[in-house]
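Hey,
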Amino acid sequence: MRGMVRSVALAILCWTHALCAAQATTPSAVPIEQEPAHQLVLQNEYVRVFEIRLPPGGATLWHVHLHDGVVVGLSDATIEDQPEDGKAETIHPHRGEVAYGATSTARTHRVRNVGETTFHIVYIELLTPDDVSPGRTDAAAPDPRVVVDNDRVRALRRILVPGESTDMHTHASKGVGVLVTAGRLEISTPEGAAKTLETKAGAVQWIEPGTTHRLKNAGDAPIEIVDVELR
């Protein structure tokens, strides 16, 4: 009898250990706004914008994406993207690189920085459903600055060398401006008003349709800017 009790106790202990091990390996995913590496820097009815930094060896929690999004790279890095239901993929993002990701169904994953440099990006989550997108509205002439162009967004990359200015221009679409590099940026309006900003890499600005301005690099190093226009 004593031996039987001991056998049952061992069986229960083994089963408990197996259950705990299974639970330990099952990811407990959080919404992206609850993932500590995703720092919310801008939100309105159209977008949520997150700045993400992972030092070498760092990793996110398992987290869930529910919407399409745009990634703007702010550094060269090497990461491992591990989906919940698939094989991990090693990716080499680059500074200034822009990528669009469609999310037709919820996507759960985590990211590990397996390289020797900080992984730094801005992630623009598109909150407007794609089935109400008005479609393309841009002119036919190709623009060499365009790096992404689809029915959801158009992204343009601009590099200003020290002292260089854009023309005075008007934004026809709403969107998000992302500073890829730090610098000293002067912004002028048609009325003649001007302000100079000391910007950091990863700074973002919401742009309303009809915004008219001129940008000038008032610093001593090139400034790279990505504008993500919403359709």
